[in-house]
């Protein structure tokens, strides 16, 4: 397969590799764009395998960077639900054709964008309501109002049902489309982790999930000599972009970049639905 790839395809694969690296250390949303681009230039199942190996390359740098910051207790609680989702995704890949896999990836990407936008709007609205309540209250009970606002703004994320829903959906979407990032980001944000704990838990989550996915992906034919060859060629770009992403994260204005990522995700997902 490799000798038949055009120069344009190779350029796009280099962009995919760079996005995979940056996604692991600076911009999680970049992985969604990488998935869509890779699916546009390779058959759906081959693209899923290649993306998985590229992301695992970035995982190694991410877990080293945040090796002391993960909430391993939370990760252990999510294991049963995630394994259920991964198993369901593996079964789907065994039964689905390239066309149906491509369309499902497109639908999943659009749904995850919608979920993410709804969650952000809801969070902003709660923060605005909390600020208004605090300003309108007399000085004495301010602390009580802040406590109440915090309680209302924090979804119940520790229950079994929440872990089952989020974990299963994350396992399924990451198995089928390597697109579980928005689901887990929403869940970990709702857990109100500090920045380092959020990044560390996310890094270790995907490192462990991708390790679990690897045997399923090999069994389904997603990881093969072609995808491994592609990864070997693209790995240096993944590593360099991941290292650059660590520096970029210190200077980047996330408020500007996130809307761009959302727009690019929508644009790149639409062609997959045809």
From TrEMBL:
Signal peptide: none annotated. It is found in: Cell membrane. Keywords: Cell membrane, Membrane, Transmembrane, Transmembrane helix, Transport. One of its GO terms (cellular component) is plasma membrane. The chain crosses the membrane at residues 48-66, 78-96, 102-118, 197-216, 222-244, 256-273. Pfam families: TauE. It is a multi-pass membrane protein. The keyword Nucleotide-binding does not apply. Coiled coil: none annotated. Belongs to the 4-toluene sulfonate uptake permease (TSUP) (TC 2.A.102) family. This is Probable membrane transporter protein. It comes from Actinomyces naeslundii.
């Amino acid at each position: 397969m490799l000798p038949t790839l055009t120069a344009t395809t190779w350029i796009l694969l280099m962009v995919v590799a760079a996005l995979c690296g940056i996604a692991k250390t600076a911009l999680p949303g970049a992985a969604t764009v990488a998935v869509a681009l890779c699916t546009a230039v390779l058959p759906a199942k081959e693209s899923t395998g290649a993306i998985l190996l590229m992301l695992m390359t970035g995982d190694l740098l991410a877990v080293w960077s945040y090796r002391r910051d993960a909430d391993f207790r939370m990760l252990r609680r999510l294991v049963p639900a995630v394994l259920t989702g991964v198993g369901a995704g593996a079964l789907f890949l065994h039964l689905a054709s390239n066309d149906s896999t491509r369309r499902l990836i497109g639908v999943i990407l659009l749904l995850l964008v919608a979920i993410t936008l709804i969650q952000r709007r809801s969070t902003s609205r709660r923060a605005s309501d909390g600020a208004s309540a605090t300003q309108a209250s007399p000085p004495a009970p301010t602390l009580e109002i802040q406590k109440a606002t915090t309680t209302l703004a924090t979804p119940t994320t520790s229950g079994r049902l929440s872990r089952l829903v989020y974990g299963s959906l994350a396992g399924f979407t990451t198995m089928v489309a390597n697109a579980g990032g928005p689901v887990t980001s929403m869940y970990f944000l709702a857990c109100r982790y500090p920045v380092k704990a959020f990044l560390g838990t996310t890094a270790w989550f995907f490192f462990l999930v991708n390790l679990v996915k690897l045997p399923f992906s090999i069994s389904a034919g997603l990881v093969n000599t072609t995808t491994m060859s592609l990864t070997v060629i693209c790995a240096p770009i993944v590593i360099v972009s991941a290292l650059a992403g660590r520096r970029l994260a210190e200077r980047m204005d996330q408020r500007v970049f996130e809307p761009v990522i959302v727009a690019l995700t929508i644009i790149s997902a639409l062609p997959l639905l045809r």
